[in-house]
Amino acid sequence: MTTRAQVRGVGHYLPKRVVPNSEFETTIDTSDEWIRSRSGIERRHFAADDETTSDMATAAATRALDMAGLAAQEIDAIIVATSTPDLTFPSVATMVQAKLGMTKGFAFDVQAVCAGFVFALANANALIISGQANRVIVIGAETFSRIMDWNDRTTSVLFGDGAGALVLEAADGTGTNTDRGILATDLNSDGRHKDILYVDGGVSTQSTGHLRMQGKEVFRHAVEKLASTAHTALDKVGLTGDDIDWIVPHQANLRIIKSTAQKMGVGLDRVVLTVQDHGNTSAASIPLALSVGVERGQIKPGNLIVTEAIGGGLAWGAVVLRW
Question: pLDDT of the chain along its 323 residues, tens only?
Fold first, then answer.
């Protein structure tokens, strides 16, 4: 018998403040048409001044627990993927643990920027199949509006805030690719490319920085690496692009999403898209899209899903799961 990490519940949270492209026209040299044509983004959400990453993560986790029909005390572990924690330490995950009222189990953060949720899912899967945890909440949460350089028109218009969460639970499987749950993962990183996407400040340098990105280089690496990692993960369990019901990609921008899907031989009608409404929410984008996909009625039990993402590091990876 094979142990699988199956999805029990999903949920998301978006801040109340919605920022349309037109709002940027009064502060920087840009336009709604310019932003849409280059990114596909129409609007995004920004956290309130008193709203933190852990607040949003807790809200998303609560909704995922509600769908799962579970109490927080029934959870063994929390993993939060974020690059914008409330504090340097303790982790956002332990803050969520406290806010949920959990007094047992363990919690930790994963930092792989936009690829963070894929890395967190792989960690949760390893914990479950090794028997170290039975139920795990996996969360992606970000407040990227706090690290934007508002004078940089090429990047400041791309990002938004939000959170998404999945509840995973151990279940028996047959060991075949027809099982429900996580079937395969593929993780990669290459630090030689650290300078094409980074924040120019941090604790050990005693500075507070802003996000810096070489857009053309990120695009080039993204299209090549995302299709490759997705195919690698599919190959591990004898599946191909034809078997995919839905690609749920990191919602970086529409051009990357379209190009990656095309390279994988998958039509855009099999891609869950939320980038137009959320912008790039970094580690939150995939769980947000999964939750919205369920809400829309797109993602159904038994569907084969591929999630893929790339972020600063560079770090990239994919997860194949059956809903």
Answer: 899 999 999 999 999 999 999 999 988 888 999 999 999 999 999 999 999 999 999 999 999 999 999 999 999 999 999 999 999 999 999 999 999 999 999 999 999 999 999 999 999 999 999 999 999 999 999 999 999 999 888 899 999 999 999 999 999 999 999 999 999 999 999 999 999 999 988 889 888 889 999 989 999 999 999 999 999 999 999 999 999 999 999 999 999 999 999 999 999 999 999 999 999 999 999 999 999 999 999 999 999 999 999 999 999 999 999 99
Output the CA torsion sign for 45, 51, 54, 59: negative
Same domain, 101 and 120: yes
What is the distance between the alpha carbons of residues 304 and 323, in angstroms, rounded to a whole number? 6
Q: Say which CATH number the domain at 224 has.
A: 3.40.47.10
Pairing status of strand 17-20 against strand 43-46: antiparallel
For residue 320, give every residue at least 6 positions away whose Cβ sits within 8 Å of its Cβ, in sequence order, or none: 182, 183, 184, 185, 233, 234, 236, 237, 239, 304, 305, 306
Residues serving a catalytic function are 114, 250, 280
Question: CB–CB of 243/265 below 8 Å?
Answer: no
10 and 100 in a single domain? The answer is: yes
41: domain range? Answer: 2-173
Number of independent structural domains in the chain: 2
Instruction: Kindly state whether residues 13 and 135 are assigned to the same domain.
Output: yes
Helix (H, G, I), strand (E, B) or coil at 23: helix
Contact present, 121 and 156 (Cβ < 8 Å) = no
Q: Which two tokens stand for residue 267?
A: 């039509």
Instruction: For residues 233 and 132, state if they share a domain.
Output: no
